[in-house]
């Protein structure tokens, strides 16, 4: 034993050190609640798109500073790259990839009155103020900042429907608070007004058009100090003292004389219904002007919500990341009704929610994956209300929400992902809503012919030439069909169960065994070429949505075992996922905003990849799931402002982390199973609403001990690499022993989760097996020809016979059989079918061959245009007279796009020709602002000066988004003419139901055919 000697001279020093340590310990403030781990600044830099301001769980108000209102990184109104603030508005989106909101902005100031915000480059131009990040503070329900230019400290807090401001002014005879109703984030004010109703109250409205095409925000603002005066201003007028003002861009200036350090509190209640509704909200939620009381209430509200999950062990950083992620998961959806339950519906009429709280902001393409499954664990009551809200939106509009915002369907993103959210609640036994109504709404979504569903339901896939993002839509529709099938089965609707179960397998039609990818094909069954699995396409272009073939290759959560079989079995499937992670992470030719957080071609910064790592469990190598999950959590989530690797997306990016840090994840968000990953905390307790606790422990878990060595459930050995929702709901303890080295735990077949779109014991009775015979196609590069053309048929289906007609009749097996190429010398409608040896026929192919005049590179026919070309949508010099039709895809490079002007062209044939018909095609893709013309008129002339009208074709403005497609307008011609003129007149503005209401629509014109 070693002897230790301490000299007498060291004892006083030792006691001094112990005393200092004790004093330090006595002063150390330990976290009193989980909310103290939350840092709302996480995600406000890079591309997280979060806001740091004050809100409460699912609150209608998100009171936060705005530093910028335009640009992709300012979707929330705030970005940490800025050093000036333009004010504090009451509504904000959390982590979205598009901007809106920023309603009812207040900005305190002193000195000369400025009514414009000014620029970031020179804040002195306007009422902006510089600020320093070190003088900002944020916590759940609270935000403060020191405004350098005005010597003002601004503090913010909130209740559900009321934002509370507290401004600490310096001594000034010229202090004021600006109320800017023009201000908004990436939207346009269309109706604004305010009225001074007492010496300390202002009421009003901001109605705007943006992502939400028609949004109403009424407000009542009460000030703790009576006004010295109120001035107003709008475009084209001077700042004048007034009590009432209206217009499109109204602003008010509330003037004061203040003493040093004087605090003025402003309570601002909002409503989507009326001023009276806002007043009721204020009276119910805030009494008086006690800022600290409201702040404490907000903190307590957050403490309660964040305590639903209690983590122990792990370091401070991990807890900060975890509880901030949980915080972000609980911001949206947002309450969208007044305290008297009145709300503005999808029909923009005022309704009353009976027995539930009405919500808005359903970013379902993102949140169906993990956010809503998280709600089924920790917020099932709210989740029920979310679904009730979806159902009334269906009743009012005829469709379930796709991406709904403030009673406006934006139509953003793909799929009909209300369905899995609804189905999950039903299948977990949490439904407190009308299940028959819910099923009716789900079926209506599944049978809606728009957005490519007509092709999906009839053909089993979406042809790439008929719909953009065809692959992504196809695989996601297949999943949504599966959840409809599960609810049908639950409700005893077995015929529907069979129908939708078979549709759930449609994704298989997109799998190319030669490349090993889910990829696009045309309506004739031919794979789309060229194919680059790393080529990223954005929403509205290409075959994938915000991604590429790698990102979508593993999306069949309803049929993972079937997907494994397509890839050739477990090992080849594992190799494919491995290969995804080993691909190059960055390629300048394959970049897109939303595809971030790359490990190889795995993209944590966007949702399609979120489940992929957990698929190793299904193929027998769960240790790879454990290792990769730790890698993503370690590399893609930090406690810094840039701590999110992509858009937070209304909770999805954060919900992924919450689940993964606890140790499991809902790969299929509606099958009630969770794949096990690698828990990072020593202990996690989920406090369920039924009174039970579900506990996960991870003995020896550490940054290096990432692998599960063994597991037990309630003390019994547990080797399954998944758990069920029922197990969690009943409560219990799931224990893991962690280690540094990978183990064989969970590798055997019996331990794996399984996923079959049709259960194996039901395949014989449910699966519909039918031969697929694709339509025949012609080898011609174009069906428009000069003189004569040769027609040859081919088919991707082997060993078929092709039959055709030339008289417009439907071909049958008794029609002429194709054996060799034949010649056409006049315009002819050719139809064809393919029949296989078993007598199975394809659908009919139609080819309208046109003998026409078009430019082949010579002088004539000459095309003269009388409109301004658009650089982005330009078919080229003779692109609309080159004998080649455009597809239904507006970005195929063959369309001429025209906006805000008439379309007018003259075709000079070079000499008089005997003419029979003229036609022109226009695309209709209203979600992308592309509308048919209001009127199309055709003319002919012999001399190019005097034109004779052949007649006008008119269209009516649609009442909703129609099916995407091309309409050809035509007029018969009798006689000999040299010149043909076509004039198309657009509608003046997009309709009120459209997200871009009031803006000019686009016309996209295709080939002009003169026969």
Structural commentary:
This protein is an alpha+beta fold and 1011 residues long. The protein is built from 20 helices and 53 strands. It folds into four domains: 272 residues, Beta-galactosidase, Chain A, domain 5; 452 residues, GH92 mannosidase fold (2-Layer Sandwich), CATH 3.30.2080.10; 75 residues, Immunoglobulin-like (Sandwich), CATH 2.60.40; 149 residues, Galactose-binding domain-like (Jelly Rolls, Sandwich). The strands form 15 sheets. The protein has a nine-stranded antiparallel sheet with strand order 6-7-8-9-18-13-12-11-16. A hairpin with a 5-residue loop joins strand 12 and strand 13. It is globular and about 90 Å long. The protein starts with 10 loop residues before the first helix and ends with a strand.
């Amino acid at each position: 034993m070693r002897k230790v000697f301490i000299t007498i001279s060291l004892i006083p020093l030792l006691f001094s050190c112990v005393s200092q340590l004790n004093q330090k310990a006595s002063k150390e403030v330990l976290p009193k609640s989980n909310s103290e781990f939350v840092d709302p600044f996480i995600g406000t830099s890079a591309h997280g798109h979060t806001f740091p301001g004050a809100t409460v769980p699912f609150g209608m108000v998100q009171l936060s500073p705005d530093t910028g209102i335009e640009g992709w990184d300012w979707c929330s109104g705030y970005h940490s790259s800025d050093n000036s603030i333009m004010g504090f508005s009451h509504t904000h989106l959390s982590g979205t990839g598009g901007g809106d909101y920023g309603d009812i902005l207040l900005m305190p100031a002193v000195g000369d009155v400025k009514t414009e915000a000014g620029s970031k480059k020179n804040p002195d131009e306007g009422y902006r103020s510089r600020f320093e990040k070190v003088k900002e503070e944020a916590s759940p329900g609270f935000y403060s900042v020191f405004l350098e230019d005005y010597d003002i400290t601004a503090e913010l807090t909130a209740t559900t429907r009321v934002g509370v401001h507290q401004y600490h002014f310096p001594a000034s005879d010229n202090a004021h608070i600006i109320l800017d109703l023009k201000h908004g984030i990436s939207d346009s004010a269309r109706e604004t007004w305010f009225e001074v109703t007492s010496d300390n109250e202002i009421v009003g409205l901001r109605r705007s058009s943006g992502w939400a095409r028609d949004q109403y925000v009424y407000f009542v603002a009460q000030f703790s100090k009576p006004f010295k005066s109120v001035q107003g201003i709008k475009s084209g007028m001077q700042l004048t003292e007034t009590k009432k003002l209206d217009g499109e861009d109204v602003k008010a200036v509330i003037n004061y004389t203040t003493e040093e350090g004087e605090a003025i509190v402003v309570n601002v209640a909002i409503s989507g219904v009326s001023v009276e509704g806002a007043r009721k909200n204020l009276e119910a939620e805030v009494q008086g002007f006690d800022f600290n009381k409201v702040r404490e209430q907000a903190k307590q509200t957050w403490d309660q919500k964040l305590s639903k999950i209690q983590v122990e062990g792990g370091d401070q950083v991990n807890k900060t990341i975890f509880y901030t992620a949980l915080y972000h998961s609980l911001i949206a959806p947002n309450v969208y009704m007044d305290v008297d339950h009145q709300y503005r519906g999808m029909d923009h009429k005022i309704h009353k929610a009976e027995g539930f709280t009405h919500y808005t902001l359903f970013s379902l393409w993102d949140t169906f994956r993990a956010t809503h499954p998280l709600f089924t664990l920790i917020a099932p009551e709210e989740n029920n209300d979310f679904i009730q809200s979806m159902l009334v939106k269906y009743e009012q509009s005829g469709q379930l929400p796709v991406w709904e915002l403030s009673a406006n369907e934006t139509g953003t993103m793909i799929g009909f992902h209300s369905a899995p959210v609804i189905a999950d609640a039903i299948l977990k036994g949490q439904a407190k809503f009308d299940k028959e109504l819910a099923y009716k709404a789900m079926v209506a979504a599944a049978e809606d012919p728009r957005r490519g569903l007509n092709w999906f339901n009839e053909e089993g896939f979406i042809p790439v030439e008929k719909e953009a993002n065809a692959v992504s839509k196809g695989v996601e529709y297949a999943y949504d069909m599966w959840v409809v099938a599960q609810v049908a089965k639950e409700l005893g609707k077995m015929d529907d169960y069979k129908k939708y179960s078979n549709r759930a397998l449609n994704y298989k039609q997109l799998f190319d065994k030669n490349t090993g990818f889910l990829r696009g094909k045309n309506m004739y069954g031919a794979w789309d070429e060229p194919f680059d699995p790393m080529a990223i396409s954005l929403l509205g272009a290409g075959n994938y949505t915000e991604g590429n073939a790698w990102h979508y290759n593993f999306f069949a959560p309803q049929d993972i075992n079937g997907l494994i079989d397509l890839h050739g079995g477990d090992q080849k499937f594992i190799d494919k996922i491995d290969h995804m992670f080993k691909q190059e992470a960055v390629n300048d030719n394959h970049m897109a905003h939303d595809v971030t957080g790359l490990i190889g071609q795995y993209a944590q910064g966007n949702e399609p990849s979120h489940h992929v790592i957990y698929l190793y469990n299904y193929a027998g190598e769960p240790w790879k799931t454990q290792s990769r999950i730790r890698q993503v959590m370690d590399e893609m989530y930090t406690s810094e402002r840039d701590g999110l690797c992509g858009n937070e997306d209304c909770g999805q990016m954060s919900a992924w982390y919450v689940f993964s840090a606890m140790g499991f994840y809902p790969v299929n968000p509606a099958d009630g199973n969770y794949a096990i990953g690698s828990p990072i905390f020593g202990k996690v307790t989920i406090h369920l609403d039924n009174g039970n606790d579900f506990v996960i422990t991870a003995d020896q878990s550490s940054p290096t001990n990432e692998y599960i060595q063994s597991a037990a459930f309630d003390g019994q050995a547990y080797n399954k690499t998944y758990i069920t929702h029922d197990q969690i709901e009943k409560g219990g303890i799931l224990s893991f022993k962690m280690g540094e080295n990978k183990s064989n735990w969970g590798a055997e077949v019996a331990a794996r989760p399984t996923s079959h779109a049709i259960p194996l014991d039901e395949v014989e009775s449910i699966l519909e097996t039918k031969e697929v015979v694709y339509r025949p196609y012609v080898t011609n590069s174009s069906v428009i020809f000069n003189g004569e053309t040769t027609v040859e048929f081919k088919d991707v289906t082997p060993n078929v016979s092709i039959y055709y007609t030339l008289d417009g009749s439907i071909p049958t097996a008794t029609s002429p059989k194709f054996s060799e190429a034949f010649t056409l010398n006049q315009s002819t409608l050719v139809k064809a079918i393919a029949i296989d040896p078993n007598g199975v026929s394809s659908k009919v192919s139609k080819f309208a061959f046109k003998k026409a005049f078009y430019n082949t590179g010579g002088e004539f026919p000459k095309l003269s245009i009388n409109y301004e070309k658009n650089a982005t949508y330009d078919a080229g010099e003779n692109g609309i007279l080159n004998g080649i039709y455009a597809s239904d895809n507006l970005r195929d490079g063959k369309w001429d796009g025209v906006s805000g002007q008439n379309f007018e062209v003259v075709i000079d044939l070079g000499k008089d020709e005997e003419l029979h018909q003229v036609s022109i095609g226009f695309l209709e893709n209203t979600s992308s602002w592309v509308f048919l013309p209001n009127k199309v008129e055709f003319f002919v002339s012999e001399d190019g000066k005097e034109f004779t009208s052949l007649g006008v074709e008119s269209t009516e403005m649609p009442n909703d988004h129609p099916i995407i497609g091309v309409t050809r307008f035509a007029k018969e011609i009798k006689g000999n003419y040299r010149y043909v003129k076509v004039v198309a007149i657009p509608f003046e503005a997009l309709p009120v139901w459209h997200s871009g209401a009031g803006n000019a629509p686009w016309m996209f014109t295709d080939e002009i055919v003169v026969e």
